[in-house]
Write a structure and sequence with these properties.
2 domains; mainly alpha; Arc Repressor Mutant, subunit A; single chain; 9 helices
């Protein structure tokens, strides 16, 4: 698969920022530092991003696009929701080191803001606006559970956490009266 040159540039800028975050405090990292580490000029950085926080938001957006591309069906039962939650948590766990850096820099709000926006956009398109506040409930739960799981060292299995999340929000209608 071929990528457009700007996608490579964004990739290098994301990689550069996370490498620098592993070495320095986020506040001390400059746009110049990121650009130099990525092998581009400052003007190139500003062509794609307004500020360094935008690099992290792009990182979330890029991973979400890849995640949504792999999801080719609408969930119809508990197992489908568990499959989606498992996929999301697996991606989160694969990126745990970066999320720890985000947490260390006290930038978790970028993750929560992203989840709020993404949940609302995705679910409103797919399910309408019947229960608009529920979307914030789901985003908040995913944020809090994933961050607590991260802080515990991701000790529980992905499947266990996925089932816990789904069981908290998914109720099958029973025929029993």
């Amino acid at each position: 698969m071929e990528f457009a040159p700007e996608e490579y540039t964004r990739h290098y800028l994301v990689e550069a920022l996370f490498r620098l975050m592993g070495e320095y405090e986020f506040e001390k990292i400059t746009v110049k530092d990121i650009a130099e580490k990525a092998g581009v000029g400052r003007a190139t950085f500003y062509r794609y991003f307004r500020r360094k926080e935008d690099v992290i938001v792009y990182y979330f957006e890029h991973n979400t696009k890849n995640f949504l591309f792999r999801r080719r069906y609408f969930p119809r039962c508990r197992e489908d929701y568990i499959d989606i939650a498992t996929s999301a948590l697996s991606l989160f766990k694969e990126n745990a080191e970066r999320f720890l850096l985000i947490r260390k820099a006290r930038l978790e709000y970028l993750y929560l803001d992203f989840l709020n926006r993404e949940m609302c956009e995705t679910f409103e398109k797919e399910y309408g606006t019947e229960r608009p506040y529920a979307l914030y409930l789901y985003a908040g739960m995913l944020f809090n559970v994933s961050m607590a799981w991260l802080c515990s060292g991701c000790l529980e299995s992905v499947e266990t956490v996925a089932e816990m999340i789904v069981d908290s929000i998914y109720f099958e209608k029973s025929d029993a009266k």
